């Protein structure tokens, strides 16, 4: 899906993801002191706004200007401020000073673009900063609920670790892997609770 496809999807008065943070975000940042945070592919801004509410100085970036405007409105509704940027995360040049947290949630890209987006994510990360990626795992296709049905847009923790290793070499940085694997996300459906299978990778930049 390109930016105009996402714009069409977001072109509704309702929030598609209801304005609540993804269930893994609060858990993954619970042990971090609020600092600067980047939400890469922020969509309608639910995660950036939640981070801002927790005291993070948040920036959301997405190539859908409709999504970004909804993020801006969600921030205003919640009485918080955040910086909003309309840009393609495969080519965006982050500011040089480096974020304390980079969050990448459910960015659905084919392998080459995904790698470019992970290079952007690492480029944006300050020394000592944490990168958290959550995405739809390949196994979800056969054993989980919902999510994209085209395997080209699904991923594994190994794919992300490979991308991050390439970014380390390219950018001459050092990352330590803190978490890398599959997690189950509960989804409420008309037929009760179902489990979706996500990939979760968390790394810290140490040099
Ligand atoms: C499934 S949504 C997830 C949004 C948000 N991270 C969340 O969890 O609510 C995927 C988002 O990725 C964005 N996206 C996809 N490709 C992108 C790209 N190359 N550059 C910037 N944003 C992109 C889309 O516009 C969309 O908002």
Outline the structure in words.
33% of the residues lie in helices and 30% in strands. It has seven helices and seven strands, in the order H-H-E-H-E-H-E-E-H-E-H-H-E-E. With 207 residues, it is α/β, with parallel strands linked by helices. The mean pLDDT is 96. Helix 1 (3-10) crosses helix 4 (65-77) and helix 5 crosses helix 7 (157-171). It has one domain (3-205): Vaccinia Virus protein VP39 (Rossmann fold, 3-Layer(aba) Sandwich). The protein has a seven-stranded mixed β-sheet with strand order 3-2-1-4-5-7-6, with helices on both faces. The structure holds S-adenosylmethionine. Residues 6, 17, 22, 41-43, 46-47, 62-64, 67, 88-90, 105-109 line the site of S-adenosylmethionine (SAM).
Flag low-confidence runs.
none
Indicate the mean pLDDT: 96
Sheet-strand content, in percent, reads: 25-35%
Strand order of the largest sheet: 3-2-1-4-5-7-6
Q: Can you tell me the number of structural domains?
A: 1
Heterogens: S-adenosylmethionine
For the report, how would you describe the main beta sheet?
7 strands, mixed
Task: Report Rg.
Answer: 16 Å
What keyword list fits this structure?
single chain, about 210 residues, alpha/beta, Rossmann fold, seven-stranded mixed sheet, 7 helices, about 35% helix, globular, binds S-adenosylmethionine
Topology record:
Blueprint: H1 3-10, H2 24-29, E1 36-40, H3 46-53, E2 57-62, H4 65-77, E3 83-86, E4 99-105, H5 111-124, E5 125-136, H6 140-143, H7 157-171, E6 175-189, E7 192-205
Parallel strand pairs: 1-2, 1-4, 2-3, 4-5
Antiparallel strand pairs: 5-7, 6-7
The structure holds S-adenosylmethionine.
S-adenosylmethionine binds next to helix 3.
């Amino acid at each position: 899906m390109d930016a105009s496809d996402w714009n069409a999807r977001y072109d509704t008065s309702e929030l598609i993801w209801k304005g609540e943070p993804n269930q893994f975000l609060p858990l993954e940042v619970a042990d971090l002191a609020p600092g600067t945070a980047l939400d890469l592919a922020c969509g309608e801004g639910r995660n950036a706004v939640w981070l801002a509410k927790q005291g993070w100085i948040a920036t959301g970036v997405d190539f859908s200007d409709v999504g970004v405007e909804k993020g801006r409105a969600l921030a205003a509704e919640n009485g918080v401020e955040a910086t909003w940027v309309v840009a393609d995360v495969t080519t965006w040049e982050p500011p040089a000073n480096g974020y304390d947290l980079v969050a990448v949630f459910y960015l659905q890209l084919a392998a080459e673009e995904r790698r470019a987006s992970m290079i952007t994510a690492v480029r944006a990360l300050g020394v000592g900063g944490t990168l958290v990626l959550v995405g739809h795992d390949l196994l979800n296709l056969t054993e989980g609920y919902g999510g994209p049905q085209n395997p080209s847009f699904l991923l594994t923790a190994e794919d992300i670790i490979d991308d991050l290793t390439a970014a380390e070499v390219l950018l001459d940085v050092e990352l330590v892997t803190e978490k890398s694997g599959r997690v189950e996300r509960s989804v409420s459906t008309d037929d009760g609770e179902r489990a979706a299978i996500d990939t979760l990778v968390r790394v810290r930049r140490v040099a």
